[in-house]
Specification:
The protein is an alpha/beta fold. The protein has 19 helices and 13 strands. Strands 1, 2, 3, 4, 5, 6 and 13 form a 7-stranded mixed beta sheet that branches. Strand 3, helix 15 and strand 4 form a beta-alpha-beta unit. The protein is globular, with a radius of gyration of 28 Å. The N terminus is likely disordered.
Length: 526
């Protein structure tokens, strides 16, 4: 007689039941710390070159999320999140240093807060994906990345100056076209989707999910390439000249103002004879450059941010001189004006005025987003002025304002952006403007006092560019471009930040689903 225990129901168990038994903690597959920890420094190092600075490498923005996401999936939840936060803090400090931004209390607090916000997608992925089916789980990280980038512009004063992956891809025009639909958040979503998919493959998942990600990415690139190939800007053009005062008079003015900058309102309280000649020399240089460019055929002339520096008592006279020049030259002239005042705490204003060929001031726009911790100006109301002209609808913001997508979402054909940067950051800041041009579907002209000036069409093509520090002429700082006078209305212009809100809603729905579902058997370290 045989004793076949396999036929005894009390002693048998199906293979399926065995597979569904939860493994004890000691029996679960683990990764040695030696395999996990190299991912953190490698991912952090890659992230340093994808922060929107002058040393950005576009492909680094696609690499670092893969490595850091892998690190969090193989690490314990809260220690892993803490290390990711530290990595983002390091990236923020690196950005501050490479961009030569003064490190003060506001910048430090911003770096710490932004790093915490940027950690949330990694934490969400670590907590939610074990409780979700594969397809929903693959959306947690990309939706989290897009949502975090959007929240940065909503809850912080930094806009997209730091923390936006879209700006790292400014030269990839086929990819960049997606922002005309989704805003900059679409690029962050795609980067996160690729990172999530690669990690699924790393976990041993089938290639079906990878095929879906590949199809999405190829569709975006093909659609963007088709837009560039078959729908180029179709419009007549207008000659636009950006002029910056020569370095000789600019340096002389800096030396003069430095003598009175030891206290708030010092320049405004200085004797007129001590500051006015240097201020007038810069203004005369700009007026002469305007005459020269108008004679060469320019119909629109733009000066940089703070091109004219004047005491409050002299502001009317300075504007009157510009009005006369616009009338004599028959041009639309936009001037940037820095007004020095003794009134605390702002001690002045940062303005841009557009003057028409009749000498009429069409608007006086005040900077809506003074740089946190650096500029004490009273912010303007954030209403972007737009005027119809023979050369299309012209609009205007000032420098840092262009780092806020909601502010830049206006119906315009040409956006003028007078700016004032510095050597280490001017190039990177101007390159980011290409994203705004594609989002809005308009040409964008950014004239930078001390940086890179450039003009873009509505698809992000560079029409002209000039580096203030690279030119060998100290008497002329000019960039000339033939700019399309008709833009297009983009999907993003119509629907706004709907894509970002959808990502937030998706993340909320996935969180709710994960809460009510039982946890799947873990594949790695808890």
């Amino acid at each position: 007689m045989t004793n076949d225990l396999t036929n005894d129901p009390a002693c048998s168990m199906t293979d399926t039941a065995v597979q569904n038994l939860p493994l004890p903690a000691t029996a679960r597959p683990t990764r040695s710390r030696g395999h996990t920890w190299p991912l953190l420094p490698l991912g952090t190092a890659a992230m340093l070159f994808a922060v929107g600075g002058r040393w950005d490498i576009a492909v680094a923005a696609w690499i670092f999320p893969v490595l850091l996401l892998r690190f969090t999936r193989l690490s314990r939840t809260w220690p892993g999140a803490l290390w990711i936060w530290a990595a983002h803090c390091a990236a923020a400090v690196f950005w501050v240093q490479e961009s030569a931004i003064g490190f003060n209390a506001v910048v430090f607090a911003g770096a710490v807060a932004l790093a915490a916000l940027q950690t949330l997608p990694f934490l969400a992925d670590r907590l939610l994906t074990p409780r979700l089916r594969p397809v929903p789980a693959s959306l947690v990280f990309p939706a989290g990345v897009a949502a975090a980038e959007f929240l940065v512009t909503v809850v912080s004063p930094f806009g997209t100056a730091y923390g936006s992956l879209a700006v790292t891809q400014h030269a990839d025009l086929p990819l960049l076209q997606v922002v005309a639909v989704t805003g900059p958040w679409g690029v962050g979503f795609l980067v996160g989707y690729v990172a999530s998919t690669v990690n699924r493959l790393w976990d041993g998942a089938s290639w079906r999910g990878a095929l879906g990600c590949t199809a999405v990415l190829l569709s975006v690139l093909l659609a963007g390439g088709a837009r560039l190939a078959f729908f180029p800007p179709q419009s007549t053009t207008v000659r636009v000249a950006g002029v910056t005062a020569g370095r000789t008079v600019t340096d002389a003015l800096k030396t003069t103002l430095a003598r009175f900058a030891d206290r708030p309102g010092g320049v405004a309280a200085a004797p007129a004879a001590a500051v006015r000649p240097a201020m007038t020399a810069v203004e005369d240089d700009l007026l002469a450059a305007t005459r020269r460019e108008a004679a060469a055929g320019a119909k629109i002339v733009i000066w940089p941010e703070e091109a004219v520096r004047t005491r409050e008592a002299d502001e009317t006279a300075a504007i009157a001189a510009a009005r006369r020049q616009a009338r004599r030259s028959g041009v639309y002239l936009e001037i940037g004006v820095r007004v020095y005042s003794t009134a605390a705490p702002a001690h002045g204003r940062d303005e841009a005025l557009l003057i028409d060929p009749r000498g009429t001031v069409l608007w006086t726009y005040q900077k809506a987003h003074p740089i946190p911790g650096s500029e004490t100006f009273e912010p303007g109301d954030g209403h972007v002025p737009v005027v119809r002209t023979p050369y299309g609808r012209i609009a205007n913001v000032i420098c840092y304002d262009a780092d806020f997508p909601a502010l830049m979402r206006v119906r315009a054909d040409i956006m003028l952006v007078p700016s004032h940067d510095w050597r280490e950051y001017g190039g990177a800041h101007t390159e980011k403007a290409a994203v705004s041009a594609v989002e809005g579907g308009y040409a964008l002209v950014r004239q930078d006092a001390e940086g890179v000036s450039a003009a873009y069409d509505g698809e992000g093509h560079v029409l002209a560019a000039s580096d203030y520090f690279a030119t060998d002429r100290r008497d002329r700082q000019t960039v000339v471009a033939y700019v399309p006078v008709r833009g297009v209305t983009t999907v993003y212009d119509r629907i706004g930040d709907t894509f970002a809100w959808l990502c937030l809603a998706t993340l909320a729905a996935l969180t709710a689903t994960a809460v009510v579902r039982p946890r799947r058997p873990a594949r790695g370290v808890r």
